Amino acid sequence: MPEKIRVGIAGYGNLGRGVEAAIGQNPDMMLAGVFTRRDPSQLQLLDSAVPVHPLDGIANFRDEIDVLILCGGSREDLPQQGPALAAMFNTVDSFDTHAKIPAYFDAVDQAAEPSGHTAIISVGWDPGLFSLNRLLGEAVLPEGQTYTFWGKGLSQGHSDAVRRVPGVAAAVQYTIPVPQAIERVRSGSLPSLSTREKHTRECHVVLAEGADAQSVREAIISMPDYFADYDTTVNFITAEELRERHAAMPHGGFVIRSGQTGASNTQVVEYALKLDSNPEFTSSVLVCYARAAWRLNRQGITGAKTVYDVAPGLLSRKTPQELRKELL
Amino acid sequence: MPEKIRVGIAGYGNLGRGVEAAIGQNPDMMLAGVFTRRDPSQLQLLDSAVPVHPLDGIANFRDEIDVLILCGGSREDLPQQGPALAAMFNTVDSFDTHAKIPAYFDAVDQAAEPSGHTAIISVGWDPGLFSLNRLLGEAVLPEGQTYTFWGKGLSQGHSDAVRRVPGVAAAVQYTIPVPQAIERVRSGSLPSLSTREKHTRECHVVLAEGADAQSVREAIISMPDYFADYDTTVNFITAEELRERHAAMPHGGFVIRSGQTGASNTQVVEYALKLDSNPEFTSSVLVCYARAAWRLNRQGITGAKTVYDVAPGLLSRKTPQELRKELL
């Protein structure tokens, strides 16, 4: 039995907890420690035997962690933590601010490469597995069109946006793909679809005391970038309903590539996710890419990487021989 | 503009013709030549400017071909051609006899490695893209089950088996996934499904003169391995009907991975293909893996490879920077 890969977790929210659970499903890995900015004694881990340390002392653990999974957020945490921690550890993260990926890649690369570390950025399902399918679709079918649909699922960014509206005490927002749009894409007809035609948005809002429902609704549905381009439904509910019926974090979506080959044959490729728990699935993807980061590093392949740089076999616990015999 | 990748085609049937068409969709490649065992003057290429040569003189073209795409069959051609041609060229093939893949891999590796060539075997959709999704599914969701469904589509192997039945003049066989089985798998309920529950088989048979329909039907539906374990329908049709209504080669299928994360959250991943032309799609996959074979070879990575060894970025014409900016 080879030694287990020693994984560390930096940041213990929904994603960090999901990573802890996912490591438990992978017998070639062990959770060597959790690092937090909170008071370590306040963290309730799934496995109380795992040591918890303050994040600011993490430099002392360089020899005890083979791969560190960064579970902070893309807005506040990763822009600083990603480069800083890739200078000390092999890392995997789920940086998902699409527009800033090139700059983030460069910053992480400049920290990882000179220090001899391997850092796989933007891992999860989008970016991540969806990115993989966008690439595969257009590589296999160069003459065609790629469509990404999200949902039905709880969008953290849009929920946050609703919560910032004056008069909103609490809220969740679901992104819902339009079934007719998906069917048109699946038919291979290569439709042009506006933003409004692809997704609808559904908000469940708890009003603050004394707030006016009509003006809250107006403020939400007219919000630029987030809602103005969509058909948005706003439902007002009680705090109890929100707690009882909207605590889960389901998500999912579709990447569909439709293209033509030969004279005029239509080919349709679809990748679909239906997730009961968005953070747990993202965590599961992070964990298998952590295995790949460790293996790449042992091969001397360092610097920042993305899912595009990782040969799929590196993700599996199985040997290349087993993969060819059992799965190919 | 960098020089184009010079691709050769060995064998010009449906697959070879599909490769010719696919190369036309990839401006970084050019078709440098077609090699055939038939009389070269008899071949009708899509582009009559492409030179056609006898296959037995292919050794003279080592300096003119960057990657050779092997378009022969898995039963008769590739077991011999795969190793022989990988000793002279970088190659890509669609060897699809699942049980014999490990032995074939070894034979090709022993030819490719010492001669400094890169040979990607078993490329297409199954094996190929489906294999990739079987691996990804179990790597991301270790606690779960993977289901592969094929069809609705024309199966070459099963059509051949029907044609070998005495009294059959011509025939096609469609493999049809059972919709209820797919729905049960999509629900995340991890059903146990027998062979009979997953697929049905539909044969369209033209009887030979004087053949007895009832005994032909019996011989087909009771055929071990091919039909005995399935619910099989046999329809008798005329030669005209066969030509007019069953000449296309549609296919497709589904790889579905369903698993649990955390306490008990169900996650379902589905990859689905709906193909108007099975050989043209397989050809399109071969062509983008030809690009990868050439790039791997230029990096000094030689020997036999499978889709598991190929980082996805190598499949795309785009640069790593473009991929991160546009697709990640």
UniProtKB/TrEMBL annotation, chains A, B:
InterPro entries: Diaminopimelate_DH_Ddh, Meso-DAP_DH_C, NAD(P)-bd_dom_sf. It is an enzyme of class 1 (oxidoreductase). Residues 124-277 form the Meso-diaminopimelate D-dehydrogenase C-terminal domain. It catalyses: meso-2,6-diaminopimelate + NADP(+) + H2O = (S)-2-amino-6-oxoheptanedioate + NH4(+) + NADPH + H(+). Its EC number is 1.4.1.16. Pathway: Amino-acid biosynthesis; L-lysine biosynthesis via DAP pathway; DL-2,6-diaminopimelate from (S)-tetrahydrodipicolinate: step 1/1. NADP(+) binds at residues 12-15, 36-38, 71-74, 94-96, 123-127. SUPFAM superfamilies: Glyceraldehyde-3-phosphate dehydrogenase-like, C-terminal domain, NAD(P)-binding Rossmann-fold domains. One of its GO terms (molecular function) is diaminopimelate dehydrogenase activity. Keywords: Amino-acid biosynthesis, Diaminopimelate biosynthesis, Lysine biosynthesis, NADP, Nucleotide-binding, Oxidoreductase. One of its GO terms (biological process) is diaminopimelate biosynthetic process. Transmembrane segments: none annotated. Substrate binds at residues 150, 175, 201, 251, 278. Homodimer. Belongs to the diaminopimelate dehydrogenase family. This is Meso-diaminopimelate D-dehydrogenase. The lineage of its organism: Bacteria, Pseudomonadati, Pseudomonadota, Betaproteobacteria, Burkholderiales.
